[in-house]
Amino acid sequence: MSTTCLRAITAAESEVSSASLEPWGQRPGATGEAATSGWKLLDQNGLPAVGVWECTPGSWTVTDRQDTETSIIVAGRARVTDADGTAHDLGPGDVLVLPLGWSGTWEILEPTRKVYIVAT
Question: Fewer beta carbons under 10 A from the terminal one: N or C of the chain?
Answer without folding.
Answer: N
